[in-house]
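Page 42, continued from yesterday. The earlier attempt failed because a stray header line got pasted into the input along with the sequence. Redoing it now with the clean sequence only.
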Amino acid sequence: MRPSRYCRCLRRCVFLLAGVVTVPAAFLVLAGAGGGGGGGPGRPHLRKNESANDATGYWMAEVEARMVQRRRHLRQTCAMLGLDAPGNDSLHRPNPWEFLVNRPHRLVWCNVFKAASTSWMYNFNVLAGYSPKFLRSSKLVPLNLARRRYPRPSLRALRAALNDSIAFLIVRHPLERLLSAYRDKIQFSLPHTLHQKLGNEIILRYRKKKIKGKSGSKNPRWPTFSEFVQYLVDVQRRGDPFDMHWTPITHFCTPCQVDFDIIMKFETLQEDQNYLIHHAGLQEIIQPEWKNPAKGRTTSELVSSYYSQLTTEQILQLYDIYRYDFELFGYTLDGYLELGMTEPSSVTT
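This time it went through. Structure tokens are written below.
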């Protein structure tokens, strides 16, 4: 999947040379010291505003410094964990299945569900030629629309695209992403869907006694968060595949086997996606999107409410499942372990 050592070094050098012209001198010292980045032979230079002296120029430089640090951390951690070596298992070979490749605009995106995927699926559909009016009125699943224009690439096609495109992904705190998936696909699953069926199966297998919720009703029709986590732990123990909405990003996008130019984070999404749009020269075509924003309780309130239903042991079991996502993208269990109980609870949200 990766270019030769010579091509990779040349690609890094071309990118840094372009930065001399477009980035303030103070930032160049940081970038030169950090090393690593996108761009290269035939690959689109990450473009920025014409004037490096205006506020946007300095803002872009600050975000680029963040990207340099993220790429460096990913590269070093991949090497430390031995995940950058080629192999035959799912962690040591590229997984092209979830990538969307836009050749006209030279963008490559690994779609991570529950990490701004709805927003960027919309953007990729606009880039594919669908009008915003059509997308607003269409009843079709956005992913299905996208796959009509972006067939799942072969490994060879992905390799070719990576040579002259900007490759990016969006990551999110693993436990926050998991909670979002649970609420969307399990607790509030749509009737007569596979996720509702899965929820019923989880209840049948893991519910051992009546559970009383805050409203006083007994036996909620959805699996509690604790029951869902028990299910995940058993899936992991059996070695069965996870649902795509909560599959670890490391398995989904194989970031140690694919050179990503831009690593956006859900926590800094507004700045990060602005940065990508400007670098790709797409500000006249797409805008930063924030589809499905959270309503009601804040994220921290939701995290506290749901993770306080788990035991400390369960939280540590989740860490084991998502360990590589934690380490590769710089996340920790800070603020989570403190919520865990020493004994299971009978209260659900």
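Notes: The beta strands are 99-102, 107-110, 166-171, 262-265.
Reminder to self: strip header lines before submitting.
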